[in-house]
Amino acid sequence: MEEEAGVRRWLVDITRWRPSPGQFDAAAALLPSHERPAIARFVKEDDRKRALVSRLLQYSLVHHVLRIPLHQINICRTPEGKPYLKDCSAFPNFNFNTSHQGDYVGIASEPICLVGLDIVSISKPQGETTTEFISNFSSYLTDHEWNCILHAGTSSEVLTEFYRYWCLKEAFVKAMGAGVGFGLHRLEFHHEHWTDISIHIDGEVAKKWRFWLFKLDEMHLASIAKGHPEDAVSSYKTALSTVSVTKEQLNSALESPEEAFTLWTVEQLTESLE
C-alpha cells in the first residue's frame, strides 16, 4: 500500500561507490545538462559524489513512483533551494526532500504531507571539547533543549543528544521549504525517550506534525518530519497543487507507521534511469 501511495525512504552509502572518472561522468550524463554544473562546482571528490547521488536519487524516485520518462521529469527549485516537481498530477502534493552528510545520501517522499529529511554524522569535534563545540550552536537551542543536552551523560552522549535535536530542527525547516535564515530557536522538541516526538513553535504545540529519529549506524542519524501543507513557506506553497487537505487524509498520513529506509546502490539507481 505504501509503495502505491508514493511514500519512499531511500538511502545510498556512498563509501561503497568508488567510480573511475569515466564511470562518474557516465552517471552524471544520465541527468539533464542543467543539473551538472551544481555537481562540478565541488572541489572534493566526496562532495561531488554526494551532489551527484542526491540528484540521481531525485530523478530515479520520480521515475520509479510516477512512471514519468526521464527526459520529461522537470525538477525545479524554490528561491530557498527546495526541489519540487513541476507539472505533477498523479499526487496533488507529491513532494520529496534529500539530505546528505558523512557516508549517506537519502531521499524521502510523501503524496499528501510535507516531508523533511535530515541526515547527520556524529563526528567528534577537533581541537575543542564537546561542550565548547555545542556552545557554538546554543543560540539555536531553547533553554529546555540545552538543559537536556548538557545532562545527557558522558561527552559522547551529550554530542549525540545535541545532534538529535539539530537533526529534527533541520528536518522541520526543510519540510516547510524555509531557507537558512529561519530561526531554529523558535522550535522546541519534546519526546519520550526519543519516541512520541512533538514540536512547539514559538511556545505553541504544533499538532499537525509528526517526527521520527533513526539510527543508521554508530555514526549517523536521520530524522523525518511530516506535516500539514498549509505550513509550507509561501514560495513553496505555490509549487504544491493544493494546501487544502481533509482532516481524515492528514490523520491517516501522519499516523501511518514510519518504515525503515531501503538501501540502494548507485549502480541500481543508474540502471533504473538508463
UniProtKB/TrEMBL annotation:
Keywords: Transferase. Pfam families: AASDHPPT_N, ACPS. Coiled coil: none annotated. The keyword Lyase does not apply. The keyword Transferase applies. Residues 16-111 form the 4'-phosphopantetheinyl transferase N-terminal domain. GO terms for molecular function: holo-[acyl-carrier-protein] synthase activity. Residues 115-220 form the 4'-phosphopantetheinyl transferase domain. Its EC number is 2.7.8.7. This is holo-[acyl-carrier-protein] synthase.
